[in-house]
Specification:
homotetramer; 2 domains; about 25% strand; Rossmann fold; alpha/beta; about 375 residues; nucleotide binding (chains A, B, C, D); nine-stranded mixed sheet; Dihydrodipicolinate Reductase, domain 2
Chain lengths: ~375, ~375, ~375, ~375
């Protein structure tokens, strides 16, 4: 007997541009999402975009894309493509996204949305215009889809933390800790936009705004470049033109105060995306290096029995988890992308706006811009444009 | 331009029997293994076996199997099937595996290998005969493929723990903790063989033998059934005929002493498969609820600086990890099955014997049998047959 | 103006015998107890007993004892002595305690109560006779006075764990891990009675009986001596005549099953006295290496919010803590002895029986004896005399 | 035989002023220090100073002071007093300390040294003048004497962390989290000087300067008062005139960047004085709620075996520990004061300058002042005076 693949329903042609780290993990999400989630439209992996023909073809084969293009403009125009997934460096996001939306394609765009506020504004406007025609867009802040962080958001929304007082966020990596590590594009301002700030600082800015449900309204910042020159691939040295770390304080709309730190020099911390929030009724704490755990302090408990509890966010009752395995059978990094794509397909299929929107991405960009301005002006307080 | 799927090399037709929890996770492994690992043969998911036509067809569609069969014998005989993956309850393993091996199909069989030593012996003999003809077999003790545990094995093999003195293993779950939870097939001796002992005790017996590189030579055991009757689906009550927990001590061949505990009544412990080993030079500690971490104590360090270190087993230098994501980007439960299938395909492609073999599975079965005998005889010491 | 020491109330003359590790820590308790606890009688540190004159005098000076004796019989007879605190090795406990009780002195005796059941029985009888005359006795199982463990006992007594199913206890040290470490009296059966079993195994037997509120009714055991000979102080080698480790399973009166392990070879574990109990409604977990923490799982919480919570047992609401510092200001090892002495003085002053009694000490001794019998008889099940 | 107290050597008459929380813990240190440490001079607890006669007398009795005075000036002049220990609120430190030093008494002064930079300068000058006459002074930053933090300092000094890049410090408490908690003197600027900043922020400023061995050279700060009015004891409401929290970034002399946070509103955090330092070769991490642990990452280890290790700082090889108990037998909060007093007596006896000096206390005060200035000026960068 023959079993057809699950394509008896509606399908969606997906094209992805970029096939490095983000391309690999997005491919895994597109390939598997409908095996676990009851999405209203099933993705077809129709084409991969890349610049180098041989490498793009190899990546298409490996990741399971049915065809490939070396010119992203062709890909954006193809009739069999309904959605464009942008996994390229930040300096190319704006042009591709605007073109794709204009061509009537839904867009999923990696973070940070853009390298500048101006580009992000242009993208948010394009997204708003497209949205009026039913064309959807989403920025890929995947950490919103960590079950433990989605649960944290739920707790805040339910009032379990009460009035929020403190937000404490950090994203600590150490891959630049070795001063002998060579130069990369991520350390060039013209390509990367910024350093730790835009790459990982953007994640914690979005995550805190997501979990608190509030915007940051002002910041004071300090950035630093510990290793100002690095060995070039071609020999010789090249200037590092981005920040190695960014530290900032901030205030949320309701008055909560916050501290942020993003760095690639926290030796021993590999991917410690951390968040703690203290409210008047409860607190939560999270570290991505133990991503299946949410720590929750319930201030309503009597002192005798109160304590931070380690919630292993692997129960059916937790966000996204019922699609997967039994309790205690952990999920990993890539699952956050599968959740992201599941939510996006659900929104598209249901005619709803996916979240986070390009407007949310713009809001993050404005915070990053305020951080840079403050750091350039003696840490003076900078209001975040709204 | 057209990109073909990565089938320019050799492929292997895979059929899987059973489509419950284990079927879902095995499917995920077969679907994705060649996207991450450079396996010498690429799996084709040709057929799924199940008893109920409608449910089997639905599962084939969902999991991505190209066809299905409701009679496993037909499936085992199909020419397009090169490997049979057995994900059914333990009482069916022997018959299917022996038939598949006789038909010249490679076999991957879920654990425990069988419900009795006699069946396991028959299977091990069939495997040995098949092996002489180049037909391979493997028992699916997936925990061997947790990177942190594979790293623990490496440390022991390198002598970093020195002479082994203590092994402390536990597998703690709590899904039967509620006495009102209904009866399931897992609590009937005729289907499940045993309770916590065979289901999860088997895992820690295999894991300790794997990491230490030594067989258990004797045990003393205690089993218990906390809730002797449970509510039947059809109304009324049914006797629970298996153990709810099994506690045993043991000795390894070299003289290390061990304690084991398997239970489904450890309220709050969801999938705490734990292992600690203390040697004369070092110690390791592991808990599956934090499966990306191996804790290592290096006894060669001076007292001033010695301490259990948390190795986040997500570095390229760690087993299996270089196929996946950057450091600190965690893997999950399902990855252990992808690793298992990668190793199996590599062995088949390279003409080598995969591990753990059916003989290894038989060895585990003999330990379980000794445990049952000891528990039935006042905890008296039982030698394990070798 | 002159301030007298706080001796306007009733006082109690204390004599302590033995001035090694236990003597130092008991002295600290006697010296400070009334500075923190409102005890009805204030201790006077009147005399220290020891065998060597010079060393005893030095210890008396250092620890703050007003006089010393080199013959414990004299000390037991002194009129200014109301209580005798026995901190000597186990082979001397019986003779001293019986004599002190006969002389009408209250007795605090270090654990294990004795080296044999026969001695312990003799002591328990002497204690019962003395008690009829208002002379009190107590065995120094100090771990009962760890605030976190006293809190665990409270939770069990309040029914927060429901019906108890699993007890998991271990006492892990590593000071004998080095096979080159020299011989000590603790490794000679005639002085120490047993090895890890009596020294640290006794603690976990008492602690589990205390926290559960139930007696152990049967055990099955395995002991081992990893290093059978050690270097003598005088040169040459000497046989180790005690166990290096003891592993046993057991059953409590109500049917809970238990595992125990005591060892001095768990490399990297310094004083890991651990206890976990799983019940039908809740669980607790404790490790002395984090002695200010009790982990509690409340099974009444919904799955979404359930998790082991880390209760930092430093609140006024926790046992013993209100006498000390503000929340989060940790207590240490020695405080358990101050609590012990506070409870003892309170009982004496109030005319009540202190706990644990010599009868409790005897009950532990009978468990240790059953463990030894089982280990000597192929791990066969041994009922514990009651 | 009579055993004299250990006063055959030199003694030092100690007077303490203030008998609240700090008085209790200092008394415990003075009472016991010579029982554990071989100090060259033995303290005599000669007099306690307080304002209320009855309460001072009671405290003297309870804590073990031989006499008391209600006028601190008399106490400072007494011939039997060699050292004055100041445990009063910050607004009185300057006057008492200057008078005591002028009277030729050694001084131990609680932190923060003073409520203003001007007072701290006056005190540091008085200390310098006294020092020329052999009269010693010390400010009581007790956290320097946590064994784990003293070990951290040792690691930095030995170069085990390499070049320092990041300092991350926080002192989190929650005792004001409840908006209904009543007014206290600690929330009045005129008495307390500042709020969380001076009370607990001072500790982390000193601790980071101590462990790094470097001064902070600039800061940018944000302070907040979450609950601006609180219920008075007499009824009605009173304005809170100090900060509830202070967040600041900073730079150390060598270029390391830092973040600091001090708050009494971190619900669930009881005394979480935390410090993490990342260098080019290694990292350390500490949390006072687990005060016996130092976490150390050795960047020289190969990636396969690198990880933060939990050093249980209870070994003889660790600072201060050999005076106490065997490995794994934890120390508590009060021990840091005993260590402080031991170091002070050792310095006095040896004719050396104790540390931290009043000049160190002044340096902390200048940082606090810069923090307040920055917070009052839109978080602008403030250089710290040197």
């Amino acid at each position: 007997m023959t079993g057809a693949d699950t394509e008896n329903g509606k399908t969606l042609g997906v094209a992805m541009i970029g096939h490095a780290f983000m391309g690999a993990v997005h491919s895994q999400a597109w390939r598997n999402v409908h095996r676990f989630f009851d999405v209203p439209v099933t993705p077809r992996m129709v084409a991969l975009g890349g610049r180098d023909e041989r490498r793009t073809k190899e990546a298409a084969d490996r990741f399971g894309w049915a065809s490939f293009e070396t010119d992203w403009r062709k890909l954006v125009e193809r009739d069999d493509v309904d959605l464009v997934d942008i996994c390229t460096p930040g300096d190319t996001h704006c042009e591709i996204a605007v073109a794709a939306l204009a061509a009537g394609k839904h867009v999923l765009c990696e973070k940070p949305l853009a390298n500048t506020v101006a580009e992000a504004e242009q993208m948010a406007e394009a997204a708003a215009r497209a949205d009026a025609r039913g064309v959807r867009s989403m920025v890929a802040f995947n950490y919103r889809r960590v079950p433990a962080l989605a649960l944290a958001r739920r707790f805040v929304a339910e009032g379990r933390l009460g009035e929020l007082r403190h937000v404490r966020a950090a994203y600590l990596q150490d891959w630049l800790s070795d001063a002998e590590a060579p130069m990369t594009w991520r350390l060039r301002k013209e390509q990367a936009g910024s350093g730790a700030l835009g790459d990982i600082g953007a994640h914690i800015v979005d995550a805190t705004q997501f979990v608190t449900g509030e915007p940051l309204v002002g910041v004071s910042a300090l950035t630093n470049t510990f290793v100002p020159k690095r060995r070039s691939a071609g020999g010789g040295e090249e200037d590092v033109t981005v920040d190695d770390c960014a530290l900032f304080t901030g205030r949320f709309a309701s008055g909560a105060v916050a501290s942020f730190e993003a760095t690639r020099y926290a030796l021993g911390r590999k991917n410690a995306m951390r968040l703690e929030i203290n409210g008047s009724r409860g607190s939560i704490s999270f570290d991505f290096e133990s991503m299946n755990e949410l720590w929750f302090y319930d201030g309503d408990e009597p002192a005798e029995r109160a304590g931070f509890r380690r919630i292993l966010a692997t129960e059916d009752a937790h966000p996204y988890v019922s699609a997967w395995w039994p309790p205690g059978h952990l999920l990993g990094y890539e699952h956050t992308f599968t959740h992201e794509v599941a939510d996006l397909l659900t929104a598209i299929g249901g005619g709803e706006r996916p979240s986070p929107s390009f407007a949310d991405g713009l809001r993050v960009q404005r915070v990053l811009s305020a951080v840079e301005n403050s750091a350039a002006n003696g840490s003076r307080w900078e209001a975040v444009d709204s």
